[in-house]
Amino acid sequence: MKLSHFGFKLPEELLAEYPAENRDEARLMVLDRKKQTIEHRLFKDILDYFDEGDVMILNNTKVFPARLYGNKEKTGARIEVFLLRELNEEQRLWDVLVDPARKIRIGNKLYFGDDETLVAEVIDNTTSRGRTLRFLYDGSYKEFRQKLTDLGETPLPKYIKREVEPEDEERYQTIFAKKEGAVAAPTAGLHFSKHLLKRLEIKGIEFAEVTLHVGLGTFNPVEVEDLSKHKMDSEEAFVTKQAADIVNNAKAHKKRVCAVGTTVMRAVESAVSSNGTLNEFSGWTNKFIFPPYDFSIANCMITNFHTPKSTLLMMASAFAGHDFIKKAYEEAVKEKYRFYTYGDAMLIL
Hints:
By secondary structure, the chain is of the alpha/beta class. Helices cover 19% and strands 28% of the residues. The chain contains seven helices and 17 strands. It has helices spanning 141-151, 168-171, 194-202, 241-252, 262-269, 311-320, 322-334; strands at 27-32, 37-42, 55-59, 61-63, 67-72, 78-88, 93-99, 109-112, 118-125, 130-136, 179-182, 206-212, 235-239, 257-260, 281-285, 300-304, 345-348. It has a nine-stranded mixed sheet with strand order 2-1-17-16-14-3-12-13-15. A six-stranded antiparallel beta barrel has the order 5-6-7-10-9-8. Strands 4-11 form a two-stranded parallel ribbon. Helix 6 packs across helix 7 (322-334). The chain is globular and about 65 Å long.
């Protein structure tokens, strides 16, 4: 498969600026791979497709307020700093992206907040926009992290042109978010409400939680026509023994095992044993899934509608079949489904 196979025309007005008013009332397109059928439902109707003993695998990563604004010393220029990952707790070293990058060189200092008690020094260049910063702050590590949280804002994707609003803090987080470390939400999980989870539970559906801390690498554009040459950024993932046991038990009983989102799919496919069961896992994964690909763990998947030529679309395509996804996306554009982070959902059976 080549990059050009994943292009399609996406009208700009279909990029969702806001989420559905109620989480579980986003629209849901249901694809049945066996019958090759497409249905149009609401997300809360997902209940109709699962039975007792089926398992949904959720990503319990939690988004932290990763976008900060600082001022450059001397010039006072406003600089956006996007925290990617912590490199060293003691030295307070972070990998970040800066914008505009051309103004930020090694040795520059940035000041944050009205009181300027938080300062960062640029100590390395990593990529064209990437820098390594050392934060300087008088206080314990806990106070330093609290300061980052206070100064940071919800890291909505760049395509959302509006200002971040107070509601985003809650809506750009799944209701099962527990383990802080993501700079982007695992968006398929955003559609679950407390009420819907309860109803699924009452029906006997089991939940297994894994963690994959979503980095910006997920959204990096693919710039090579030959997909086998694309390198994914590494992201940290954890699969507990408890989660593996729940999933393997469901597989043994021929139940539905549903990956809620591409991040879950990547985490579990990075932790497959030689006999096709799920292993405990703790480490980094740079797994890139594109067609053709044999999936070992999940036999159904929930995902959002993705942008053209994205690695997320490639994974959905590998799972549903390239032609079927193409047809579904043409239908989604025609029916004005909402795309991307705050958009509608798809269930692939």
